[in-house]
Amino acid sequence: MKIQRIEVEGLYGLHNYEIPFDDKEKIKIIHAPNGYGKTTILKLTNDIINGNLFEINQIPFSYFSIQFDNLDTIEVFKENKSKYNDVGQHIDTFSITYKISKDSKAKEYKLGGKNNYSKLLEGRVPISYIDEEFPFLKRIGPRAWFDKRTDERITYDEIINMYGELLFMNKELNDILAEVRKMMPVHFINANRLIKSGIFNQNYNYASTAARRESSEPSVLVYSKKLAEIIENTLAKSGTLTQELDRTFPERLIQRMTCNNDNQIITIQSINKELEELENRRIKLEEVGLLATSNNTTVQPTGDIDESTIKVLSLYIEDTKKKLNVFNEVESKINLMKEIINKRFTNKIMRINTTEGFIFELPDKNFLSPDKLSSGEQNELVLIFELLFKSEFNSLILIDEPEISLHIAWQQQFLRDMLEICNLTGINILIATHSPDIINGRWDLTTGLGGC
Q1: What is the rounded CA–CA span in Å between residue 146 and residue 150?
Q2: Where is 241: in which H helix or E strand?
């Protein structure tokens, strides 16, 4: 499932845009000078698919449409109203209508209104209801949650501000949007990406917003820890599989010994070739940082060996392949990240550590913490990490101003890097930029929003 076309009318009361997508391409670029709504289009795409009514309400527009390649369409009509109540208080209300066209059938869902806002403002939303409606939130205090999607701690009031209208969203509509996100997850990488605010820390479970801000960390440190966690989880998965294979090895070996398979001819040469390939595989995993370095090498049998030994070795080889295959996905992502980063960064080499994540080795063999990198290096690293390790298959990734702090030479290499990542991970990318160096001649991927 991919987006085929985006349309917006009345953006800031001024702009009407149509943005077609090429279903053969993984990347789409919208470009314009500042003030034409590039970032806003990314935000609306993200907020409409994720059902963020509060965010949608903050943006002046009258109509927004997302058409998919299966011809399903999400349309949003927005009407702002302003009036005074009986006691002279000024009340801003909104009316948002989602129109969902699916399988040639269309249905409208009207949302918003004064009553919902009054409930939100009065804090009359039960905490238990929040727990039920937002499975991505984990309760860590009486009125505090940890958002597992963003690795942030948020309070009751912040949940109401950010997601409150979802509590009043039509359940049928909510289910439809959830199904869209299941087929095409959406992830917005905004321009302010170097700091992750409110990172969960057990010492701040009940802290104020101000205290939580003090716990903010550079994104590169957060992601370095995240990579260490990913590696730890992969090692745990490998360990679980290893235990299961080792536990059942005797039984499976006996079955193999008693099985007479005359059609399967295994030679000592093929055994040695397989063992050599496994040894090379281990070495590569050690170089990537996924396995601890070992001085032990696999001893290859020489001379004639009997059929029983061949069966033992063949089963050992099969099991070892399964154990090492657990690392395939993480290994390929780490390899591509290291390849891109080590080409770009000068006088430093990215190293992967199972406990620290990524660190950088200097020419004098000392190490540099990721937060000591330049702003351009941090921007590059954050983008690459989010695309490789925080994006699901077939996700739509929305990237705002990737050129921030990047040298012109890096900007010109950006699309090439993105295409490599798209091919590896199966994601699609929508970019908002005003840099011709990011486009780097690929005008066939672009739509201008005017003023260019």
Answers
A1: 9
A2: helix 219-258
Instruction: Find, among 357, 372, 138, 326, the residue nearest to 234 by Cα.
Output: 326
Separation between Cα atoms, residue 11 and residue 351, nearest integer Å? 46
User: Given pLDDT bands bounded at 50, 70 and 90, which one contains residue 442?
Assistant: very high
What tokens does 125 get? Answer: 């939303």
Beta-strand relationship, 367-368 and 357-361? antiparallel
CA 424 to chain centre: 14
Domain range summary for the chain, segments of one domain joined by +: 1-103+394-452, 113-168+194-215, 223-328
Q: 399-414, pLDDT tens digit by residue?
A: 999 999 999 999 999 9
Half-sphere exposure of residue 284, counting CA atoms within 13 Å on the CB side? 15
Mean pLDDT of 57-82: 89
pLDDT of 200 strictly over 60? no
Instruction: List CB contacts of 161: < 8 A, sequence separation 6 or more.
Output: 54
Work out whether the CA dihedral 198, 224, 423, 437 comes out positive or negative.
positive
Q: How many helices (H) and strands (E) does the chain have?
A: 14, 19
CA pair distance 188, 147, nearest whole angstrom: 16
* Spatial CB neighbours of 295, under 8 Å, sequence gap ≥ 6: none
CA distances from 171 to 18, 99, 221, 264 (A): 30, 14, 38, 57
In CATH, what number does 1-103+394-452 get? 3.40.50.300
Collapsing DSSP states into helix, strand and coil, what is residue 376? Answer: helix
Terminal CA-to-CA distance of the chain, rounded, Å? 31
State yes or no: pLDDT of 149 exceeds 80: no
* 95-99 contacts at long range (C-beta below 8 A, 24 or more positions apart): 96/53, 96/56, 96/57, 98/74, 98/173, 99/73, 99/74, 99/75
3-state secondary structure of 73: strand
**Structure token pair of residue 320:** 């070892």
Neighbours of 365 (CB within 10 A): 6
